[in-house]
Specification:
Oligomer: single chain
CATH class of the largest domain: Alpha Beta
CATH topology of the largest domain: UDP-n-acetylglucosamine1-carboxyvinyl-transferase, Chain
Bound molecules: ligand EPZ
CATH architecture of the largest domain: Alpha-beta prism
Number of strands: 23
Helix content: 25-40%
Shape: globular
Largest sheet: 4 strands, mixed
């Protein structure tokens, strides 16, 4: 299995271009199944999760073409088949096939989804939504079997503003008879990205990006076309890297509003940032200030950025805290930073980070996607060499991470 070898200490300068958002793209690809014949998506990131989703589309008898900066999918011969475990367990986002296949065929058989080990991650809210639309959901062995004679519009309140449940219910509701209202819906940009795709294929959706989304069921959808939004978490990761060891590092092709909370907290931490249209210019922060972070649903501070941000806080003079309000166990990577010399302790959902600590290279095992990204950042500022194992977890969410970092002067390479 390949590993990442990182030599710390280089100052990074130049341009990093942000790719299409993993968390948008993994919902947009299953959504193409709502189209009768074809769909086109621009700026799909070339990452492992997308490879798996394309394999699932092939199993469902779809044909796709990957062009320079877009993918077209031909769904004319779409067949409803069971989605095998070896693919559905590769990522959490395989569950979006529930919403689309239920809408198209009124029947889905799919093995349990996978996903990073950061908490229990149940899908009770998705199932509550499908049942509200008239489906029955059974669990047989490790499969969900979801069926409906017909789907009727309903008023669905989400106890938690779940991103996945909001998107999955929106997908299923596109073909439900009448009106569906999702209340306490998630407001993440991914929701808007998916809704604009559905609208392009003829769906009638209003309120995406707010807490109340209204979907008018339609008979037929086709010719969907959209562009994947820039990856806000990839952007946040590289802006934080610039604050750690950049010199006029340009993070390009971002939508600033999508990472507003992260930029505000970076400013609180004393990081000077220059925001110009769709790029951020950031340099190493001379004096990082201790900061309190509370992860929230959008537009609050994103949980996916707390692990990379932890690395910055190890360099703050004083004690910082991160309160993780979205997942039950997202501090494993902080424990690994301690192996490199950081001083973090977690009590319940609060991580305490005592800085400033000098980090030293180490050989570590990547625990999850964003934790892996945090270890890459730590390796880039640590003294000596860091070797990361199990890096498929990183490659599944950061397009061309080695190439992008090498281009700005990082000493990082894939080794066997
Ligand atoms: C999406 O996961 C993202 N993944 C996650 O990113 C991200 O952390 C999360 O949204 C929050 O922004 C993808 O989009 C593929 P949720 P999702 O449903 O949809 C609980 C990354 O690093 N919950 O908003 O699974 C759940 O357990 C990944 O890119 C229920 O209890 O997130 C969690 O504690 C990690 N029941 C919280 O809500 C449900 O039915 C947030 O989940 C659904 C969720």
């Amino acid at each position: 299995m390949p590993k990442l070898k990182i030599e710390g200490g280089n100052i990074l300068t130049g341009d990093i271009n942000i790719s299409g958002s993993k968390n948008s793209a993994v919902a947009l690809l299953p959504a193409v199944l709502l189209c009768k014949s074809t769909a086109t998506i621009y700026k799909v990131p070339k990452i492992r999760d997308i490879e798996y989703l394309l394999k699932i589309l092939e199993i469902l008898n779809c044909k796709y073409e990957i062009k320079e900066d877009f993918i077209t999918v031909d769904t004319t011969k779409l067949k409803n088949k069971e989605i095998p475990e070896e693919l559905s367990e590769q990522m959490r986002a395989s569950y979006y096939f529930m919403g689309t296949l239920l809408a198209r065929f009124k029947r889905v058989s799919i093995s349990f989804p996978g996903g990073c080990n950061i908490g229990a991650r149940p899908i009770d809210l998705h199932i509550k939504g499908f049942e509200a639309l008239g489906a029955t959901v059974k669990i047989i062995k490790n499969k969900h079997i979801i069926e409906a004679k017909e789907l009727k519009g309903a008023r669905i309140y989400l106890d938690f503003a779940s991103v996945g449940a909001t998107i999955n219910i929106m997908l299923a509701a596109t073909h439900a008879k009448g009106q569906t209202i999702i209340e306490n819906a998630a407001r993440e940009p991914e929701i808007v990205n998916v809704a604009s795709f559905l609208i392009s294929m003829g769906s009638k959706i209003t309120g995406a990006g707010t807490s109340t989304i209204i979907i008018e069921g339609t008979k037929e959808l086709d010719y969907g076309i959209t562009e994947v939004f820039p990856d806000r978490i990839e952007a946040a990761t590289y802006v934080i890297l610039g604050a750690l060891t950049g010199k006029d590092l340009h993070i390009k092709g971002i939508i600033k509003d999508h990472i507003n909370a992260v930029l505000i907290k970076l400013k609180d931490a004393g990081v000077p940032l220059e925001v110009k249209n769709d790029e951020i210019i950031v340099s190493k922060c001379k004096k990082v200030l201790p900061t309190k972070i509370f992860t929230q649903v959008y537009p609050g501070f994103p949980t996916d950025a707390q692990q990379p941000f932890t690395v910055l806080l190890t360099q703050a003079e004083g004690v910082s805290t991160i309160t993780e309000n979205i997942y039950e166990s997202r501090f494993v990577s902080a424990g690994l930073l301690n192996v490199m010399g950081a001083d973090t302790t977690s009590t319940g959902n609060v991580l305490r980070i005592k800085g400033k600590t000098k980090l030293k290279g180490a050989s570590l095992y990547t625990p999850d996607l964003r934790g892996g990204a945090a270890l890459v950042l730590a390796g880039l500022i640590a003294e000596g060499t860091t070797i990361l194992d199990n890096i498929s977890l990183i490659l599944r969410g950061y397009e061309d991470i080695v190439d992008k970092l090498q281009k700005v002067g990082a000493k990082i390479e894939l080794i066997e």
